Amino acid sequence: FVGGWGAGRVAATYGADVSSRVTKDSWSCMKKEGFSFAVIRCYESVGRPDSNCPATVKDAWEGGMEHVDVYMFPDPTRGNGQAQVDELVSFLSQNGIKSHGAKPGSFGMLWLDIEGPQYWTKSESTNRAFFNDLIARGKSHGLHIGVYTSESQWVPIMGDWTGGAAFPLWYAHYDNSPSFSDFRAFGGWSKPSIKQYHGTTSVCSAGIDKNWYPSGAYFNASIPFVETHYKN
Asked: pTM of the full predicted structure?
């Protein structure tokens, strides 16, 4: 069981993010193992929608996940972040998946995956402009946006910039510790929303990363759209 309950243990929520096809049976198995939310890659770093995404989103709902989000690994080398968001939204819609649509054709948040300086330009100003294009287009589609990044990734790409701090932060630190005690403020973020605490492991015949947030922490009053989504 992923969580486990001991004396004094804080109630918490566990989830899995995936970048490959995961079936209903695997999600059902993960539900029994204590996972309750999923984040699914729907746009690849090579600049195209992920063909595994639609079926995996639907199977995550059917397998018992309580919340299903998607993430986008954009391609800065292609430029035109707005067109990439359009491409993703169109792809999802064509496959019967919409933001806050009817389950199982639904997702809550779109997380922007900002990592891998090698995938970005050497210009902080160009990278910031591309990020702002992603945000602007996402907002125009009515999407609820969060940012997946870490200090070691954000700073080499964006520099000392707070342009993403208005959005929820999902950060990675593979210390196998479901806790925010390791978090250090950066990029204007003073507190995170989710932690990816264990990377690249196999659970229920699926390749996943393990994620965590303390129950209630995600429902940040300063981020009402997150609170609204996760009360549905």
From this structure: 0.90
